């Protein structure tokens, strides 16, 4: 099943990296630094049934300390139930630390794929809803930092030609302290929001958050027989550290990044194509 993923490469590697309320302020007392990234997505009420389905989950964590305490946690879940015309997944990454020198990193990825929806001349449609929640908190901006990134992406691909027909992307990032925080979304035609996308942010302190929720419908009419593949994937990444990591911590940090990239590269460079 998972060998059918090569055409998703550009989607899985886009980031450098239903709404649950998240209060960083109340959680900040638990640790000197905190980072949180969660995303959820559901697709349902498909007008057609895929000929095949697949799910993918992957997690990576790193927690090291030379003087202090640090924890990192990642979780990912995914399911596709063709008989119920429903697919959903969840991805969560958290890290928190306290002390003089430590590093905590967590990354989670979840994906669902529906292969070869056979659409005779007529309409193909489904409903969707999702949420992305990010939060960071630090106590000392001179010696601590916390980062959180996340995205939700789906695309419709012509199974025969590999052409991307339509897409939706929701993405955000927090860098505390520092600039470059963001929360935004993009989409192609044939997507209608049944509720105005809700984006709420606070980028102006040592406690920051970005919360987004979306709900809508995809609908497109095809003039001839078309086979469609649907991919929905999410990625959540967090890191906390104090202070700037030593040579040892930096080496281990880049080691986990290499492991994470290798896992993605292995998935997206399969020799079997979607067709």
General description of the model:
This is PEP-CTERM sorting domain-containing protein. It comes from Floridaenema fluviatile BLCC-F154. Residues 1-31 form the signal peptide. Keywords: Signal. With 275 residues, this protein is mostly beta strands. The chain has one domain. The chain contains three helices and ten strands; from the N terminus they run ααββββββββββα. It has helices spanning 9-12, 24-27, 247-268; strands at residues 33-44, 50-81, 86-119, 122-138, 145-158, 164-176, 182-187, 191-202, 207-222, 226-242. Strands 1, 2, 3, 4, 5, 6, 7, 8, 9 and 10 form a ten-stranded antiparallel sheet that branches. A hairpin with a 5-residue loop joins strand 6 and strand 7 (182-187). The longest helix has 22 residues, at 247-268.
Secondary structure layout plus pairing:
Layout: H1 9-12, H2 24-27, E1 33-44, E2 50-81, E3 86-119, E4 122-138, E5 145-158, E6 164-176, E7 182-187, E8 191-202, E9 207-222, E10 226-242, H3 247-268
Antiparallel strand pairs: 1-3, 1-4, 2-3, 3-10, 4-9, 5-6, 5-10, 6-7, 8-9
Q: Any idea what the shape is?
A: elongated
Percent range for helical residues?
Answer: 10-25%
Stretches where pLDDT is under 50 for at least 5 consecutive residues are 1-31, 266-275
Q: Let me know the largest β-sheet.
A: 10 strands, antiparallel
Backbone structural class: mainly beta
The count of helical stretches stands at 3
Protein name: PEP-CTERM sorting domain-containing protein
Keywords: Signal
Organism: Floridaenema fluviatile BLCC-F154
């Amino acid at each position: 099943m998972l060998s059918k993923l090569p055409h998703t490469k550009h989607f899985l590697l886009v980031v450098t990296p239903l709404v649950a309320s998240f209060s960083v302020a109340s959680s900040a007392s638990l640790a000197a630094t905190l980072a949180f990234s969660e995303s959820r997505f559901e697709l349902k009420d498909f007008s057609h049934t895929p000929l095949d389905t697949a799910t993918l989950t992957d997690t990576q964590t790193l927690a090291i300390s030379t003087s202090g305490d640090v924890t990192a946690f990642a979780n990912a879940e995914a399911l596709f139930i063709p008989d119920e015309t429903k697919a959903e997944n969840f991805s969560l990454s958290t890290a928190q630390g306290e002390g003089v020198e430590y590093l905590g990193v967590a990354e989670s990825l979840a994906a669902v794929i529906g292969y070869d929806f056979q659409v005779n001349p007529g309409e193909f449609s489904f409903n969707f809803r999702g949420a992305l929640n990010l939060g960071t908190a630090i106590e000392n901006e001179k010696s601590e930092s916390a980062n959180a990134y996340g995205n939700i992406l789906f695309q419709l691909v012509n199974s025969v030609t590999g052409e991307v027909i339509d897409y939706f992307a929701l993405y955000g990032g927090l860098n505390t302290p520092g600039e470059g925080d963001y929360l935004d979304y993009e989409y192609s035609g044939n997507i209608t929001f049944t509720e105005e996308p809700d984006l709420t942010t606070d980028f102006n302190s040592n406690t920051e958050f970005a919360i987004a929720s979306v709900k809508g419908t995809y609908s497109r009419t095809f003039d001839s027989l078309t086979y469609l593949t649907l991919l929905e994937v999410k990625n959540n990444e967090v890191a906390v550290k104090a202070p700037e990591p030593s040579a040892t911590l930096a080496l281990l940090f880049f080691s986990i990044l290499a492991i994470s990239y290798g896992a993605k590269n292995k998935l997206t460079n399969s020799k079997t194509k979607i067709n």
